[in-house]
Every structure is written in C-alpha cells, then in structure tokens.
Amino acid sequence: MATASAVSTPARAPYRHGLWWFVPFFLAMVVAFWPSYFSRIAQQPTYHAHAHGLAMILWCALLIVQPLLVRLRRPALHRRIGTLSYLLVPLIVITTVNFIHFRVQGATQLGAVGLYVLALILNALVVFVILFGLAIRHRRDRAVHSRYMLCTIFPLFTPITDRLIGAHMPFVAGLVPRIDGAPILPTVGFLLADVLLIGLALWDWRTNRRADVFPVALGLLVAYHVSVLTFHRLPAWAAFGEWFAGLPLS
Q1: 28 lies in which domain range?
Q2: Minimal CA–CA distance to 67: which of 173, 170, 166, 149?
Q3: Of all helices (H) and strands (E), which one includes residue 119?
Q4: Fewer CB under 10 Å: which end of the chain, C or N?
C-alpha cells in the first residue's frame, strides 16, 4: 500500500478501522484453509500451494499492518512498508497463475466446470489487480487510496466462503446454481461481497457524500461475477482455456 500521505485519514474513512475488516478476513482464511493446507503444510505434494499460500498470507499481513500504522501515526514506516506491495502483487499474480495452470496443464478439453473454475480464479485476479492499480494511481489522495485498498479483499472471498460452506454448511450446495451438475458455491461469496459493497457505498454516501470508489468496485465485482457464470459457455473462452492449459508455465 504505497502512499505518500495516507496517514491522517479522516475519522469517517473506513480504512482507519481497517483492522475490523482485515483481521476477521485473515482469521476466516486460516479457518477455511486449516483442513486442506495449514494442518497439512508438510504434506503438500508440490510447491505450488506453498508459493500461492505464502503470497496471500503476506498480502493479508500487509493489509493488517498498514491501517495499524495509520492509527499509530507512523507515516514513514507506512510508506516504506507500502512499497513492498509493488513486489508482492506481481508475486500474487505469478503464483496464482502458476497454481491454476498446474491444475489444468495438459488438458485438451476443460469442460464446462473446468472453464468455470478458470474464470473464477483468473478473472478474480484481474479485478484484484485493477483495484490495486486504482489504489496506487490515487496514492496521493488518502481517502480514495484507502478505499480501493479495502476493496481488494472482495475478489478474494470465494476461496474462503466455499471451504467454510463445504465444511460447516453442506446443505447450501442444494440451494445454489449448478454447472453440469456441480454446485456453484461461489455464488454465496459473490452475494456476500456484493451486499457488503452496497452497504459500504450507501454508508459512504450518507456519511461523506462520496460515490467515487465503492460503486466502481461494485461494478467491477458484478462484472466478474457475471463472467464466472457465463464464460464457460463461450467458444472463445474454451479456446483460451485450451491455449492456457497447453502453455509451459508449470
């Protein structure tokens, strides 16, 4: 979160209370991935999960540390740590692309479910990068910058919500849409993210008369959600999936 002056954010800016967003998000991630990853770290078959997991853990740590430094009025340290995001975000992109490629490599035909999963992960990554890019573009406007940084968590909801639902609320699988018989659990994460962003947009308008960030993030998120539910039907996406699976990336 590189920023030139994001240290005296007005009290009504949500990022001053970012710990109330990012700590629960991180804890939910640990709980969601405990059975499949954290409790079996030494048993992972390849490095791909470790590389991707480490990158995401570092991102969560950065999101927690930065608003804490804002509250502690440590602007210089906030800026220095923020510059690490210029390295960390490319690392997230590389490890995520590498991880999904490892899962689909060599497939000559992914099928509807495989194409849906590809859109779920790659398009989330695109929205995440766009939101981060907007945050960096507005890094000298602390109010806009901080709001976009908050929004970077919303494309990342479904890996957490899917696992929590699968482990603790399996009945939900019977209530969601399906693709080739497979339940699309991410629709629950989509709905949660959209509702929270709508709430933030309404709060920001009523409290600060601002409508310059959260509606934009909501539009990006809705476009992403629509893409996940529709791209598997497109011949162009099927061709992309076949091309991607054949790349020598992993």
Answers
A1: 14-245
A2: 149
A3: helix 111-137
A4: C
